[in-house]
Structure formats: structure tokens, C-alpha cells
């Protein structure tokens, strides 16, 4: 008899609040209301990502006045040069202490 293991599944849903925002944006700002077919296609596209990513992509599209939703890489966090200089100045590992 085979043992069955439980597998955690993450169900990705649609971020309805931001989908509604997108539909309103298209209708009000671009004067190009979305057809039922277009809404289904956008919903299918958005379901590829989690709800936080959906929000980020829709916000980005609205901010840039795009007519469509496109994948945009998330902003990369990097250390500032000040942190690197501070680390260089206080680093005592070279002294073998």
C-alpha cells in the first residue's frame, strides 16, 4: 500500500478590488470600456500571479497610463553606498581579532 503525502496547494485568486480599479480606469480615463471578452482575457492573465503581484502590475499600468497590463520586474532592493562605506570603515575581520 502506498503512503499518501499531503501537499500544500496555494490557490491563486483574482484580486477583485484591483480588477475593478482597472476596469474603471479603462472606462473613465481612456474612454475605452472593456468588453466581457476582454475582462475574461485580463482575468485569465492576472490569475498567473498572486494577488499582491496583480495589484503591483495594475498600479504600474495605471500610473503609466497603459491600455494593457504587462509583466514588470519588481523594484530591486540594493544596499546604498553609505552602508558599504560604513561596513568598510568598521570591518575588523582583517585584523584577526
Shape: flat
Percent helix, as a range, is: 40-55%
Please compute the radius of gyration using only Cα atoms: 23 Å
| Euclidean distance between termini CA atoms | 59 Å
Q: Write the H/E string, N to C.
A: HHHH
Give the mean pLDDT: 83
Q: Tell me the number of strands.
A: 0
Please describe what this structure looks like.
The protein is mostly helical and 97 residues long. The protein has helices at residues 16-28, 36-46, 51-63, 81-90. α1 runs parallel beside α3. It is flat. The N and C termini lie far apart (59 Å). The relative contact order is 0.13. The mean pLDDT is 83.
Summarize the structure.
The chain has 97 residues and is mainly α. The protein contains four helices and no strands. It has a domain at 16-63.
Architecture blueprint of SSEs:
Elements: H1 16-28, H2 36-46, H3 51-63, H4 81-90
Q: Which features would summarize this protein structure in a list?
A:
single chain, 97 residues, mainly alpha, 4 helices, flat
